[in-house]
Design goal:
Chain lengths: 777, 285
Amino acid sequence: MPVSKSVGARIKRREDPRLIQGLAHYVDDIKLPNLLHVAILRSPYAHARINGINTDAAQNLSGVKSVVTGDDVKDVIGGIPCAATDPEGFPGIKVPHHPVLATGKVRFVGEPVAAVAATDAYIAQDALDLIEVDYEPLDAINSAEAAFADGAPVIHEDWDDNMAFTWSIAGGDVDAAFAEADHVVSQRIDHQRLVPNPMETRGVVAQYLPGKDQLNLWSSTQIPHLLRTQISVMLSMAENHVRVIAPEVGGGFGCKLNVYAEEALLGHMAKYLGQPVKWIEGRRENFLHTIHGRDQTGDVELAVKDDGTILGLNYTVTADVGAYYQLLTPAIPTLTGLMLCGSYTFKNVQMNLKAAFTNKMATDAYRGAGRPEATYLIERMIDVVAHDLDLDPLAVRRKNFIGKDAFPYETGTALAYDSGDYTAALDKALKIADYEALREQQAELREEGRYLGIGFSTYVEICGMGPSAAMPAGGWESSTVRVDPTGKVTVLTGVSPHGQGQETTFAQLIADGLGVDIDDIRIIHGDTDAVQYGIGTFGSRATAVGGTAMVHAMGKVKDKVVDIAAHLLESNPQDIVIEDGKYCVQGAPESGLTLGEIAMVAHVGVELPEGTEPGLAESHFFEPPNFTYPFGTHIAVVEVDADTGEVEIERYIAVDDCGNIINPLIVEGQVHGGIAQGVGQALYEEAIYDESGQMITGSFMDYALPKAHNFPRFELANTVTPSPVNPMGVKGVGEAGTIGSTPAIANAVIDALKPFGVRHIDLPLRPEKLWKLMQET
Amino acid sequence: MTPFDYHAPKTLRSAMRLVQAFGDDAKVLAGGHSLIPSMKLRLAAPSVVIDLSGVAGLKRVTAGNETISIGALATHYAVESHRLLPSKCSLLPETAAEIGDAQVRNRGTVGGSIAHADPAADWPATMLALDAQFDIAGPDGERAVAASDFFVDLFITDLQPGEILTQIRIAVPAECSGGAYVKMRQSASGFALAGVAAQVTLDDAGNCASVAVGVTGVAPAAYRAHAVEDALVGQGIDAVADAAAHATDGVEEFQEDHHASGDYRAHLARVFTQRALSQAIDRAA
Ligand SMILES: Cc1cc2nc3c(=O)[nH]c(=O)nc-3n(C[C@H](O)[C@H](O)[C@H](O)COP(=O)(O)OP(=O)(O)OC[C@H]3O[C@@H](n4cnc5c(N)ncnc54)[C@H](O)[C@@H]3O)c2cc1C
């Protein structure tokens, strides 16, 4: 029985049974005859010259097929690409060559130096110990500050300093705003470096078919098509002879929106060795050599009037981007700049960024990618303003909110917010929280020496990335919708879901649109030989952009189905409706036709209306006119243990507005995980490199991820403000939780410590830090 | 992985024979929760691994009227879930429940934890507070060592090469005795930044007749906080706060890393000593 209206229903994810039962196929599940296993020798030094590499002993180990070094591949594999290096956007940008295997010098711990292919993974690993590298250690740089210090060692010797690039944005008249201000509220704010930590680490299998001159590359990636293009360039192969497959992908959070050394290296080795090769990243390797997120430190100044009206913002910031660029490294902090005005009306805004090369892994897109920095900064600063001017943080927010009648709203950074009602989300969250009672409880507990804190985040963010003009590598998306002769529907989509649930939500849209059972719909993604070109899954774009492409393709299919039905029923297309899963003249379902019957006619090809092509498949490429801008209010209630500084999250309320909702269950899941990751940044996570450039948080024994027992039951709700940007009115929800939650927790903890005169604390809010602050007063 | 020979003896006697035959080249394997990661990281590279998990009798946990015995190969979960332990000695299951997560407790062993002597492991604190005796089989037969003589330094115990820890014996605490284990978890690993086990017996007047406090996570090895005990014996609950202030008396070196400074760990030792003692006294009453 077709589900008559599946959009909006809490349908369980169709992908989960195979994931839960261990029936899914990840990269590591791929087994090919004669498969060789690759292990990568990585630099133990943050910064060193390579004076020589001796691979003889490794080469001679029984079972070792090949050892390759940087010198072996430097002329045959191109550099690792970066898509955001335009000197107009990034004045003075230095674009260092980024080799797949180091030559001459290593620049961060974990940088690939050599690769071994062997008959099993253990032999490959053992062989690494036999490679002798003559390193000459150099002084290492572990922060942007150290990179810019006088006399700092230079990481890329083609230039004479470590300035990677600069970037700035300005809107309105910042000087006038500060001249007019009653107060200038300033604070230095740090956004610590984070490790994305998908459950599945990266992995690559490559197979070369000489008869067809074809390279098959399986990779745990979010962007199979972009990867294919880049790999073909790096390996000088014709793009149509490269097939990239993203099989089941166990999470990415942005870190698989990239092109990595191993992907090109394995492609090369498969071809050169004539045998398929596999490399599966270990967790420690993942810590060292999969991109990191955040790592900005800056000084914020707000120009404020006595009543809390914000007139302008000035942000002077340095970013520590690591030793090389990955695919989008320079673009990430630009998203921070674009979102600095948050949900507030001030338009005088300026950001000046200097980015430094350091001896660390590159930063790049991690869940939120630049927007969490902006949101944390402005949401934190609102509370600092409230603190300094002795105002209620809620009053400051309300005073500065963009009103619901102001949309579409142009920001000081020239974005056009599509739709919004920030007050509605805030009011709803306050009601759920029972805010007045919470403040009373807080006052009572303080009497007893217990420290409850209430923190807000009234965030807005960017989703549905995006118009191509605003993107480094295309912002459109594609889909083909095909009805097979028996009426089963196959959807090809250019997005590459890896946990977001589009096999379910896309099927819901098709089920309603074409009047078919959801079980008769299959969503195919992540195989460049099966799917027309697409951009991929990131920036909460898959549904807003990819889903829209699919809905348009489906519309074309449906038009044709209706034409054929009208012809067969001797009626007019405009009189055809879907009733009980049949295309029929209104009120006469008994004489109607199923999609299968019509599809068969379309494929047999003899009863078609004149001029109609046989077959039933249509494609659409959708270029979105704008981003979408989801928003919401998060409220955190925490208690800080006065004896130990430990933070307990007592309640967490999130009212998110992601436009229309296709599947509430999936939206909640995205929000749950998002909140957890944002709380991780607020309370636990930090990638620390020591002075010598060693990462001292390189395993789960030392890098703290949030755990289930750290959380209360989330109290979730929504407001629904449809987006005008796409016909479904959806916005996106993949990153909202992460973006919204970090400042809510930070503000709550700092609110709890108000009696101790605390104004600001940098993240993560470790117990010791809090305990020390409580001792100081 | 460096190649090694693997043996899986079925009896303690054959295990002992293997241990003695291979000497320093051999490592015994319990749950593998510490040994296997060390081997994967190539910090340990034994040429012989002797797996104790099939040795008869080493997994048994029994709670008699006077003595509780825990086989060295008993898992944390076996202690956590034992039917009689909550009433006979609640400190044991309470400690077990604080270790890692369900998978860890199903795999990790009490003996492995004690033999490994991680400075942040939970069991050493509790074993000290319960005056546990460790039965050790060696080349010259059996010997018993008190917990207070066993934990020497960072990952160093009184166990000698060629010896196997076989069981842990604990005297069932008296009627009016209570215990408590409290810890702060290191936020990544879940091990103790500071963990304190207290076992207190009250006299008829409700004062402390005996007090035992074990502290882990703070110093290179878990230790008995004798100064706390001395300050509290003969006193009631009102004296707990003052007594707890002595929790790190005599400690010369503190554990220190990016998770917590030595000062903070020392502070936590005092806070958790106070909490553990208050709860223990509460339960004893
Ligand atoms: C993810 C994780 C989280 C954990 N969390 C905690 C925690 O919160 N608190 C905590 O206290 N512990 C924790 N542990 C430790 C765990 O519970 C084990 O107790 C510990 O790792 C010892 O492991 P095992 O029992 O498997 O012994 P193995 O790893 O097999 O052995 C450890 C060492 O002891 C030696 N050994 C083992 N048994 C004997 C014996 N009978 N006689 C002589 N020598 C022996 C071995 O040769 C080896 O050197 C955690 C471990 C993991 C993996």
